[in-house]
Amino acid sequence: MKKKFKLDEVDCANCAAKMEDAIRKIDGVKEVSVNFMTQKMTLEAEDDSFEAILDEACKVIAKVEPDCEVIR
Amino acid sequence: MSKRLKRQLKQILIGLSIFAVLMVVEHTCGFPGILGTRWGELVLYLIPYLIAGRDVVKKCFLGIKNRQLLDECFLMTLATVGAFVTGENSEAVAVMLFYQVGEWFQSYAVGKSRRSITELMDIAPDFANVERADGSIEEVDPEEVQIGDTLVIRAGEKIPVDGTVLEGQSMVNTSALTGESVPRSAVPGDQIISGCINGEGLLKIRAEKKYEDSTVAQILELVENASSKKSKTENFITRFARYYTPIVVAGAVILALIPPIFTGNWMNWMMRACTFLVISCPCALVISVPLSFFGGIGAASNIGVLVKGSNYLEQMAHLDTVVSDKTGTLTEGVFHVTRVVPAEGVLEETMLRNAAIVESLSTHPIAKSIQAAYTEVLEPGLARDARNISGQGLIAKVGDSTVYVGNKRLMEENGIDYREIQDGESTVVYVAADGKFQGAILISDEIKDSAVKAIREMKQEGVRHVVMLTGDRKGIAEAVAEKLSVDEFRAELLPADKVQAVEELLARMSGDKKDGSNGKKKLAFIGDGINDAPVLSRADVGIAMGSMGSDAAIEAADVVIMDDDIGKIPRTIRIARQTVGIAYQNIAFALFIKILFLILGALGIIGMWWAVFADVGVAVICILNSMRMLKRKGL
């Protein structure tokens, strides 16, 4: 499953890259891109565990940027 | 302004006011009693410090917890705490405030430019009005529209999905998609494309595609993905950062540890090391280079040109050779009868009628042009016993006579005494009836008005070589090539030959380079995107024209010109060159300031203030420079 989420908001280009790297390491993530310019995250992951993976990704994002919120 | 920016601005302003009051009190009458001691002052100054800089301190601890040391927040905290320890309280607060102001302004500028770029591409419809079976109208999200739904589009509304007009008449503004300011008319039966804005009339359309398959959704998807295809310049920055960061960190460690062994004064060297690290932050580069390219892509989409990646925009700036297909690109792609030459004693009307009747059996573009030239109505079934002679023409019975319509070989093979017409630019169709020559019809494809100018402008923008490829006869190609003043042409090519021609040109450009790459010089191919997909993908940059609504062309090309105005190519090259220019300026400026300040910082000539400037100040300047791309008018 592939889904797009809006991020509110990624503050720096470097943070976006950090998030992307960290989310890619989560188990079950096929592909992820965090786009600083459009403030969007595209996540592709296993269908059955998508929600769990998304939760994990949100945690990772909160670690890099505490103020950044994923709008689901 | 986002909620967070507002909150941060408030924090900065409160911190700044408290700081100002403290400074005034300290320098006029001094702090009374216990507040006048060293500890008292520290506590007082910590108040504005924590109000303005608590995000930074918080992130610093988070960074330590997540083992992400050496980020900016860690450095700023270390540097300011160092200042507090050495008793320079006001210095510590001022540096933190200055840093926060810079950071705030940076976020603000990035947010603003992001918004102005998305505004440029503001084509997404917000809602759709669906007419239900009972005649009621319901407003829904465009994504909920089903194929076959009837949609009502009022004056000034955006067309939510691709569809066909059922009722009503209007002029539709396509400028958001094509950059074309002249509205198109829409009448029942017309295809209508999502993202266009309805003019004065009320339209009812039938949804032909779901939102996610509609033109507007595809375009938005493309533009959003464009910034993830990185240009060489961006990749250079990433590679550069990989070496730069460890070198700078090593430099800072040496600065903090080695000199104090000889001179003592640990605190001073520690501060210099911190200054050094703050200066070194590569933020200005990391943000401003992609922002320049994003701005360039935005500016291009504003004139109706989709660039599918930063890398393609960068290559457009280095075009050396432009190869173009002829038909439909440089020429209108529509054949017209330009001259009718009846034989002596034959009426023009008679000859043209015979030709039109026979050609009504064919769907070839040339046949269609002859049918169009004969304005009288022809009832069907006038031609009988038609024979199609491949590579020659048609023979058919019209009434009692046998009519021959075709090229000179058809005339020769059938022993007809014809008068040959020499005209390089046109295709000549000869007509004969019952063995007697009736005359000739000259047909040609008109050169686009804008093509000559576009080629001249491309040359002004640094393109050295313009090549035309065509499947047409050599004579026609030669005449068109001369009119357009292209440097070279290749005629009588089959589709596969075009790929080969492009490969030859690429090989010639690479010249004696051993790796076979063409270095900085790039080759673009311009086609209509319908049957030249292999050529589009073989060229460095594949440009498809006239592709509004054509999924195949949007798919195959790297750069898509939404309408068929070839004049947009030089404009896109101009945008590309300016974008690359701005990116280079940013890199040069940021690196120069950083290296200069790193040296000055290591020598202890400049302090934390300047270090903060070199970090956020330079970033803000670079961002503002990138935004120039969006302000340009009349490109």
Automatic annotation (TrEMBL), chain A:
Q: Name one Pfam family in it.
A: HMA
Report the GO molecular function annotations.
metal ion binding
The organism sits in which domain of life? Bacteria
**Xref: CDD domains:** HMA
List each copy of the HMA domain by range: 1-69
Q: Which Gene3D superfamilies match?
A: 3.30.70.100
**Protein name (Swiss-Prot/TrEMBL):** Heavy-metal-associated domain-containing protein
User: Lineage from the top down?
Assistant: Bacteria, Bacillati, Bacillota, Clostridia, Peptostreptococcales
UniProtKB/TrEMBL annotation, chain B:
Q: Reaction catalysed?
A: Cd(2+)(in) + ATP + H2O = Cd(2+)(out) + ADP + phosphate + H(+)
Entry keyword annotation includes rRNA-binding:
no
Q: Where in the cell is it found?
A: Cell membrane
- Transmembrane feature ranges: 12-33, 39-57, 243-263, 581-602, 608-627
In terms of SUPFAM superfamilies, this protein maps to: Calcium ATPase, transduction domain A (SSF81653), Calcium ATPase, transmembrane domain M (SSF81665), HAD-like (SSF56784)
- GO cellular component terms attached to this protein's record: plasma membrane
Keywords attached to this Swiss-Prot or TrEMBL record, sorted alphabetically, are: ATP-binding, Cadmium, Cell membrane, Hydrolase, Membrane, Metal-binding, Nucleotide-binding, Transmembrane, Transmembrane helix
Q: Domain P-type ATPase A: where? A: 124-224
What InterPro entries does the database record attribute to this sequence?
Answer: ATPase_P-typ_cyto_dom_N, ATPase_P-typ_P_site, ATPase_P-typ_TM_dom_sf, ATPase_P-typ_transduc_dom_A_sf, ATPase_P-type_domA, Cation_Transport_ATPase_IB, HAD-like_sf, HAD_sf
Topological type in the membrane: Multi-pass membrane protein
Q: Does the keyword Hydrolase apply?
A: yes
EC numbers on record: 7.2.2.21
MF (Gene Ontology): ATP binding; ATP hydrolysis activity; metal ion binding; P-type cadmium transporter activity
The entry assigns this protein to a family as follows: Belongs to the cation transport ATPase (P-type) (TC 3.A.3) family. Type IB subfamily.
| The protein's name | Cd(2+)-exporting ATPase
Tell me what gene encodes this. cadA
